[in-house]
Write a structure and sequence with these properties.
Number of domains: 2
Number of helices: 0
Radius of gyration: 25 Å
Helix content: under 10%
Shape: elongated
Strand content: 25-35%
Number of strands: 21
Mean pLDDT: 90
Distance between the termini: 49 Å
Low-confidence stretches: 1-19
Length: about 375
């Protein structure tokens, strides 16, 4: 078989496989992986074998070609944070899952690379859910911090943060998967692991690695989107929650999805701080009742673990999540009444919407 090459297009000249612009065949375009994309490719059409879709280049970016009119959606989807453990010396709650395709580099959850471009069809209603934060540990839930709720945008699901453990090494079970993991509580004479976060969404909760029976007790920190919660490795140790990650999707850099701090039991030790990005501080060491602080609303921050010596301290609740949508200003988004969404803000040549509560749908249309 001979091949006639016209620019970047190969046109097989074969009687058994007729190919033409007006015939029953088609044009064969170059194909390859993301890594094989050529530079200086404005106007080039190719087939991407990594995602099995056609794509074109506008001079600076490769865009996928989908059926029908579509809009390029950039997103930040954060789930509700996990609640901190209760009673005392409890583990901090893990941050809600953190997923984004905005920006470049390892700035998505767990310091993973940003996700792929998302093209959604015009006029189609897509599901949006903003996950609530998990309840902090209390007497009615066996003092265990509860998992946060998932957040969703058009099939992009961020998992709720894991709940923190409570006194004597008890960890929540049956709550996986989680975005970032809840921290392990104190256990006087054994070691134990915090919950594992989900790759691409968050980090692990802190673990107890010291088996010595100490006179001061502290729980471990909850995992944040960008940093694992503090492990407890010595007796006199304050365990902070892991830090979250920063995003400029709204036009301003904001850090979200920090883990909750680990609570302390006896005096002579400080309080575990919540991780940057809305993680709640833990309850302090005290003879009284020292509740953990709740994670900040709409950050997905984990709740702080309970402290004090009363045995009735409450874990802080997890902060609710958020869904942020950024689209070209050639389009607009319409949300169902069951969602709490901001009016569009203008950022450069884009529109940005922040959805802060509810479950419903979003539809994209041309202006």
């Amino acid at each position: 078989m001979t091949t006639l090459k016209v620019g970047a297009i190969e046109h097989p000249d074969d009687a058994d496989t007729p190919v033409s612009l007006g015939g029953t065949g088609g044009l064969r375009v170059p194909q390859g992986t993301n890594a094989q994309r050529p530079s200086n490719a404005q106007g080039l059409l190719r087939y991407n074998t990594d995602v099995n879709q056609f794509e074109y280049n506008n001079g600076s970016t490769w865009y996928r070609v989908k059926d029908g009119p579509s809009v390029n959606v950039q997103y930040l989807v954060i789930a509700g944070g996990g609640g901190g453990g209760g009673k005392f010396e409890a583990g901090g709650g893990g941050a809600g899952g953190y997923r984004t395709n905005f920006g470049t580099g390892n700035i998505s959850g767990g310091n993973s690379v940003v996700e792929n471009e998302l093209l959604l069809s015009e006029g189609t209603a897509y599901t949006v859910t903003v996950g609530a934060g998990g309840t902090g540990g209390n007497s009615s839930n066996s003092w265990l911090g509860q998992r946060g709720e998932d957040s969703v945008l058009a099939g992009i699901t961020s998992y709720g943060g894991g709940g923190g453990g409570c006194y004597d090494g008890i960890m929540p079970t049956g709550q996986l998967p989680v975005g970032s993991g809840g921290g392990y509580p104190n256990d006087s004479s054994t070691t134990g692991d915090g919950q594992a976060g989900t790759d691409g969404q968050g980090t692990d909760g802190g673990s107890k690695t010291i088996s010595t029976h100490c006179s001061t007790y502290t729980g471990c920190g909850g995992g944040g989107a960008g940093e694992q919660g503090d492990d407890r490795t010595t007796c006199l140790q304050v365990c902070d929650g892991g830090d979250g990650l920063a995003s400029s999707i709204t036009g301003t850099s904001v850090t979200r999805a920090g883990g909750g701090g680990g609570g302390a039991y006896t005096g002579g030790i400080g309080t575990g701080s919540g991780g940057a990005g809305g993680g709640g501080d833990a309850g302090a060491a005290s003879a009284g009742n020292q509740n953990g602080v709740s994670g900040t609303v709409n950050t997905g921050g984990g709740g702080g673990g309970a402290g004090g010596q009363s045995g009735t301290s409450l874990g802080g609740g997890g902060g609710s999540g958020i869904v942020i949508i950024r689209i070209p200003n050639t389009h607009q988004a319409t949300f169902s009444a069951s969602l709490t969404a901001s009016a569009a803000s203008s950022v450069g040549s884009d529109r940005v919407y922040e959805v802060t509560a509810g479950t419903g749908t979003v539809t994209f249309t041309v202006n």
